[in-house]
Amino acid sequence: MNSPDLPPPTLRLQLDSDALATNWRALDKLSHSARAGAAVKANAYGLGVDKVVPILREAGAADFFVAHWSEVPEVLRHVAPGSVAVLHGPIRSEDAQFARATGVRPVINSLHQARLWLDNGGGPCDLMVDTGINRLGLPLEALADPLLAQLEINALLSHLASADEDVAQNARQLAAFEDVSRQIPAKSRSLANSAGIALGSDYAFDLTRPGIALYGGVPRPELDGVIRQVVRPQAAVLQVRDLAAGDSVGYNATFTAGEPMRVATVSLGYADGFLRCWSGRGRLRFQGSDLPLLGRVSMDMVVVDCRSAPNICEGDWLDVPYSLPEASAITGLSQYELLTTLGRRYLRE
Ligand SMILES: *Cc1c(COP(=O)(O)O)cnc(C)c1O
């Protein structure tokens, strides 16, 4: 027996491939003499590696960064192993062996990782030096360790802690990184994430590592008007109903109708990354009309006021306004959280 055809989901993510490619090219240009790579960790910030990586590759990106080893196979469906680096680095021997077997580069973050990599045969790697974020990376005090001389360092990396703010830490990290670059020979040097690119050419070195801005995030005002929106979620109406005055909506009855009104129940919930902080604040859109959210966001559903679009029907598609800077201002979620929590139930197209 043939397996039955699965109907399409009632959620979709429209990915504007043109905006994605344009964003990469804009960030590459803003990187001056450096080339722009691409952070594609966390399933390309929730948008889908299988969609995103080929578009970035065709736009010209040749350096891809993931965080976990588990993220490597999907990326390798689209690009050569030599263009992939794994930011978390090898913690266990299996990680190092996997890197050797696939040909992707580990990012070495500590002397422990350096030893593990060399003990497992070594080979080309990147080296992350911590210049002040105090998160992941070789501490400056470890730079003199003779073990480092045995590494075949492709890119020397560091990561900015506060590039989205105008604070003295940026210049301090820049100076520390310049200092490190003089001590550690490497084929290339890379410091800037998306916000770091907007700090100017001093921060660009040889390679930049944009993530959020590729996908429509605007971490600094300099990128306003440069970066285009990439993701447009849409959700289908499941049911339309008419409320009487006094009827309440959803869990804990946090909204009560003051007059008769038509509402629609929509296939979008916190399991889809539409978190409860949207409750009572957001709105969906239908053919130019605003449909305010009523009551609580549930796991799989929200209810919207459709007095402005009374002819709405089951199966109609509603737009979820998802300009990242605006959605962040409404919800208090970071632009990163807005993307990476989107979940698995969308048809990514
Ligand atoms: C995630 C990440 C990036 C990308 O940062 P954005 O702020 O998304 O541009 C760059 N470098 C490292 C080390 C990262 O972990």
UniProtKB/TrEMBL annotation:
One Pfam family named in its UniProt record: Ala_racemase_C
Keyword line: Isomerase, Pyridoxal phosphate
EC number(s) on file: 5.1.1.1
Modification N6-(pyridoxal phosphate)lysine, positions: 41
InterPro entries hit by this protein: Ala_racemase, Ala_racemase/Decarboxylase_C, Ala_racemase_C, Ala_racemase_N, Ala_racemase_pyridoxalP-BS, PLP-binding_barrel
Catalysed transformations (reactions): L-alanine = D-alanine
Catalytic site positions: 41, 251
Binding site residues for substrate: 135, 299
Gene3D superfamilies according to UniProt: Alanine racemase, Lyase, Ornithine Decarboxylase, Chain A, domain 1
Molecular function terms, GO-annotated: alanine racemase activity
Pathway, per record: Amino-acid biosynthesis; D-alanine biosynthesis; D-alanine from L-alanine: step 1/1
Domain Alanine racemase C-terminal: 230-349
Cofactor: pyridoxal 5'-phosphate
KW Isomerase (keyword) present: yes
Function: Catalyzes the interconversion of L-alanine and D-alanine. May also act on other amino acids.
NCBIfam families the UniProt entry points to: alr
Entries under HAMAP family matching the protein: Ala_racemase
Family: Belongs to the alanine racemase family.
Protein name, entry field: Alanine racemase
Gene for this chain: alr
